[in-house]
Amino acid sequence: LLRVLFAHLGIPHDPETGKAIQNISKETVVEEILKLPEGEKIQILTPAVFQKKESFEELVDRLNREGYLRIRLNGKTFALDEPIPHEKFKKNELFLVLDRLIVDRKSEKRLYEAIGKAEETVIVARESEDISFQFSAGSRIAPQTFSFNHDAGMCPECQGLGITYGAHLEDDKKFRKSSIYDLADRLFKEKGTSGAYKILERYFKTVGETREIVLNGGPEVRLKSELTIRWLGLHPVFANAARMAIGEIRESLLPMMSATTCSACKGARLNPIARNVLIQKQSIADLCGFSIEKAHGFLMALKVPSFLHETHSQALKFLAFLLAIGLRYLSLDRSAPTLSGGELQRIRLARQLGSGLTSCLYILDEPTIGLHPYNNELLNSALKDLRDLGNTLILVEHDPLTIRASDYLFDFGPKAGREGGHITAHGTIAEIEKNPHSLTGAYLSGRKKIPIPKKRRPFNPDIRIENACLHNLKNITVEIPKSAITCLTGVSGSGKSTLMSYLRSNKDFDRLIIVDQSPIGQTSRADVSTYSDIQPLIRAFNWP
């Protein structure tokens, strides 16, 4: 939904200058060009776009076949049938020359034809200046432009992942104390006397030696008229070596690999065009970085044309449902591994229920698993709103707050397994509480209770966790007792499971057993019996 809104409402900006690229009609572009001094020579350009896995030579051949004559490379114009000094590993400015003409009213038809060939951007290069006009043709800004899973939107550096893989050399104490020249001494046999060493030395004297440049690469530098070099960076070089190497070389490199935020997109996962399409000075990456509460406020204040009313309304409904179930603090770009089990459960519910459909039957199997009573209350309120729209909801549930919120109950039992399979009671909450056959009613009414132990065992706080600061944790220190049952409690998303992850590195125990909310097998419905291949035998058994 956000992609559709940005495709229609977003204003593209130049990634280099930050200036808005005017998205206007062909007529307006032609009129602006004809305002130039009559008789001036101009070129009508558009960015030359490579097809997937297409080399520069293949691009030239394709353009030749399509009838084009010239391209503009780094400010110079070349005929397609002459040698073109394109450097593969250099950042090149490459434009297709759509036409070369003289500003004159007689050229109006040619201008329309040239501009009509531009798929994304029209650029007017004047003879007396550098590029002086840039207009967006608008046809290439589409919802897929903002998809990091699509070629049109993904960051070319990290392929839409938001991270790149490289050597985690910064964790090595020796590396942190080493300069680039110390590292070069290990690479070059002749050290300071070799030509490669001297080039490296000149490069870093020009750009400066910073850890960011050493690890992730730096800008191009022209050392001589015939020599332009760029430092690629240790992270991408080692990562590429790990991908391309075979056998023992790869195995020796893989332990050195780690994920780092992509230096090109800063984790946004989108290419420069998508990152610079703005609505009220905010890109789609900026909006996804907002909290859900802030994003909802941003969209609420947004005025949209009538044809976008439905899209705008659906986006607001989904965010409103997330707010209603207590997820106002999350951001839209949070990755699934950083979410708690309760947060994931509520997001799944929001995806299914946030559409606001009516006259539907919803079947929910224990929707409150992993939720704090505070979150349960918010969820129950949202479910009631859904019911009030004219929907029917059937829940499998044990939580007393949710049971009391229901309109009608069926109590199954009397016990489990062979002793179950019967409906022991049904009716309203009041009827269930009075029913002598209902075990659930006995606990709801208070006739049955779970006794609280009167004595507690003595214990000492032996397990210490210091400066925990992962995800939501704010640099906390706790002490947990041994030989005792300790419960970590709090609202969903407050950091309980994250704190428990710190126990993985504890060395006070011979064995650590973790039972979390992750599926045991390949599906979310897998359990111990499916994982151990016992389930097929159970299914095959001829039960009486």
Descriptive account of the structure:
- It contains 22 helices and 19 strands.
- Helix 9 (234-244) packs antiparallel against helix 10 (247-253).
- By secondary structure, it is an alpha+beta fold.
- Strand 14, helix 16 (373-388) and strand 15 (392-396) form a beta-alpha-beta unit.
- A seven-stranded mixed β-sheet has the order 2-8-7-3-6-4-5.
- It is globular.
- The longest helix has 16 residues, at 309-324.
What secondary-structure arrangement, pairings included, does this model have?
Blueprint: H1 2-9, E1 11-12, E2 22-23, H2 26-34, E3 41-47, H3 56-65, E4 70-73, E5 76-79, E6 94-102, H4 108-117, E7 121-126, E8 131-136, E9 163-167, H5 173-177, H6 180-187, H7 195-207, H8 211-216, E10 220-224, E11 227-230, H9 234-244, H10 247-253, E12 257-261, H11 272-275, E13 277-278, H12 284-289, H13 292-300, H14 309-324, H15 341-353, E14 361-365, H16 373-388, E15 392-396, H17 400-405, E16 409-413, E17 422-427, H18 429-434, H19 439-445, E18 461-468, E19 476-481, H20 496-501, H21 528-531, H22 535-540
Parallel strand pairs: 2-8, 14-15
Antiparallel strand pairs: 1-13, 3-6, 3-7, 4-5, 4-6, 7-8, 9-12, 10-11, 16-17, 18-19
Helix pairs in contact: 2-4, 6-7, 9-10, 13-14
